[in-house]
């Protein structure tokens, strides 16, 4: 009988369609033992699909009270600069009141090592660490850790906050979509 974690990793590899994904998943979920798939979905706008997303957690994250990992596998090429600009724009839009320009500039700088150019099949993964911040991986390699709980909450709100631009993806990630 295989240990539960190994079964989970094999299931993830099947979902992603590549055995190479096991390494990326294991690295991303290093703080989430044992992590389980909370939900998955895709971001498509007018039939133009950008990425597939999966939320891994020890329990469905309600109120950001437990660690979780958000894994995004891209279907299209996107520059790191564009990823960061979009994240900052969404944080500014969703946070009330919006963070100061100085704070947003600091957060933008903190994201730079994590968000490199991506091509189809690349996986970016963020791990939310309650009370600490976030850890970011690209294709299974640790890129950076941001020790700022306010940043981490604002960043993951892009997908999980009630004001997200992709409410159906949010519901799917949280396991609410049927």
Automatic annotation (TrEMBL):
<feature type="domain" description="Chalcone isomerase">
    <location>
        <begin position="69"/>
        <end position="175"/>
    </location>
</feature>
<feature type="signal peptide">
    <location>
        <begin position="1"/>
        <end position="26"/>
    </location>
</feature>
<dbReference type="Pfam" id="PF16036">
    <property type="entry name" value="Chalcone_3"/>
</dbReference>
<dbReference type="InterPro" id="IPR016087">
    <property type="entry name" value="Chalcone_isomerase"/>
</dbReference>
<protein>
    <recommendedName>
        <fullName>Chalcone isomerase domain-containing protein</fullName>
    </recommendedName>
</protein>
<keyword id="KW-0732">Signal</keyword>
């Amino acid at each position: 009988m295989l240990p539960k974690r190994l079964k989970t990793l094999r299931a993830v590899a099947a979902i992603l369609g590549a055995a190479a994904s096991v390494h990326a998943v294991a690295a991303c979920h290093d703080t989430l033992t044992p992590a389980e798939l909370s939900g998955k979905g895709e971001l498509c706008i007018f039939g133009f699909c950008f990425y597939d997303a999966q939320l891994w957690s020890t329990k469905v994250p309600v109120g950001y009270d437990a660690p979780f990992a958000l894994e995004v596998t891209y279907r299209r090429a996107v520059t790191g600069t564009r990823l960061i600009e979009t994240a900052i724009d969404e944080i500014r839009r969703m946070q009330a009141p919006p963070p100061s320009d100085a704070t947003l500039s600091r957060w933008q700088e903190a994201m730079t090592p994590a968000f490199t150019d991506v091509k189809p099949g690349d996986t970016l993964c963020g791990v939310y660490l309650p009370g600490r911040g976030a850890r970011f991986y690209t294709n299974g390699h640790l890129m950076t850790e941001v020790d700022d709980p306010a940043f981490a909450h604002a960043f993951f709100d892009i997908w999980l906050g009630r004001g997200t631009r992709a409410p159906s993806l949010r519901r799917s990630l949280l396991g609410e979509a049927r």
